[in-house]
Amino acid sequence: MKKNLSAFVLLIALSAAFTSCKDKAKEAETAPEAAIEETHNNTEGVTFNVDPVASTMEWKGTKPTGEHFGTISFAEGTLVSQQGQISGGNIVIDMNSIVVVDIPAEDEGNAKLLGHLKNEDFFDVENHPTSTFEVIDFVESEGKKELIGNLTIKGITHKVTVPVTVNQTENDLTITSETFTIDRTKWDIKYASKSIFGDLGDKFISDDMEFKIVVKATKA
Fold first, then answer.
1. By C-alpha distance, which of 106, 113, 107 is closest to 67?
2. Burial of 117 (0-12, 13-18, 19+ CB in 10 A)
3. Taking a C-beta distance cutoff of 8 angstroms, is the pair 44, 80 a contact?
């Protein structure tokens, strides 16, 4: 009787252990991909502080009847480099610094467009005064370099890939991008989007916004 009881207890223990292992394996399989991406932002290496004055960010929006373009400034940021490769970093973008370049500053159309870009139809600057770009990876393939990061606008984050050229000396680091695009609707910027509002005719604004950046940083 004692042998049978012992065997029964052992069977229960083995069953519980097997169930526990299955549950842990299931948790591992369903772990969010974002958690893996975050580990790529390496803070070890040489730190460079972004120079907001020397750095630039250009934007362009298009529509059937024309285009508008201008600049946005960086507020602050850091970049980390290991053996000439970008391994981490975070850049803060000052959304209040948006400037319209294609319309003369004294023209009332400039102020009108600027106000529109800053209100809730576009970047909602009052509630979201900054955007951020967090480096999660840096890859090089066939001589081309790409900076991959989490871009947060209006509190919404999506991964973007930016083709870049990197120049680094002992004390200075410069990242120059090619022109790249983002689909603004992914960040809840839906005003006059043809993909969302189907009855706009030719009065729509392209979902794709173009950007080009030059980030200059100095060794901390």
1. 113
2. buried
3. yes
State the pLDDT at residue 41.
Answer: 63
pLDDT less than 50: residues of the chain: 1-37, 39
Assigned token pair, 28: 């591992």
Q: Indicate whether this model's pTM tops 0.85.
A: no
CATH topology of domain 33-219: Lipocalin (2.40.128)
The full set of domain ranges for the chain reads: 1-31, 33-219
Measured between alpha carbons, how far is 134 from 128 in angstroms, rounded to an integer? 17
Which pLDDT value is given to residue 142? 83
State the amino acid at position 159 in one-letter form.
Answer: K
Phi/psi at 33 (5° precision): -65, -30
pLDDT computed for residue 141 by the predictor = 81
Residues 52-101 pLDDT 10s: 999 999 999 999 999 999 999 999 999 999 988 999 999 999 999 999 99
